[in-house]
Design brief:
Layout (H helix, E strand, L loop, with lengths): L27 E3 L8 E4 L2 E5 L3 H6 L3 H21 L5 H17 L12
Parallel strand pairs: 1-3
Antiparallel strand pairs: 2-3
């Protein structure tokens, strides 16, 4: 893993600080059940809170777990590129909403296309 991510070409979002921009890193689970954070990047390591209630809700379903981790990584990219530390709690809430909306999506039926 690269210690300092190179600046991306203009117009392309940068990877979260300390992460190589060309790869999605393997996340590191951290048991922090009493803490409200869902994901973070510490010293170039992407971590997710395996003790968080939202993660525990999806941990046994591979499809839901992958979608949840993708949401967390997207949150880190948005926070790094378009937001500051003050927006962190808002982005955490976005992941919470996406987690519960994703669970309510009907399975086995094709998505309905909007009328043109």
């Amino acid at each position: 893993m690269v210690a300092e991510a190179a600046e991306p070409p203009t117009g392309e979002p940068a990877a979260p600080e300390g992460l190589a921009p060309e790869v999605v890193p393997d996340p590191e689970p951290v048991q922090a059940a009493g803490e409200s954070w869902r994901s973070r990047v510490i010293a170039g390591v992407w971590q997710y809170n395996a003790g968080h209630a939202d993660y525990r809700k999806v941990q046994d379903d591979a499809r839901l777990r992958l979608r949840y981790l993708v949401h967390l990584f997207a949150k880190e990219i948005v926070q790094r590129n378009f937001a500051g530390p003050a927006e962190g709690p808002l982005l955490e809430r976005m992941v919470e909403v996406l987690t519960y909306v994703g669970d309510a999506t009907p399975r086995g039926r094709p998505a309905r296309r909007p009328e043109a």
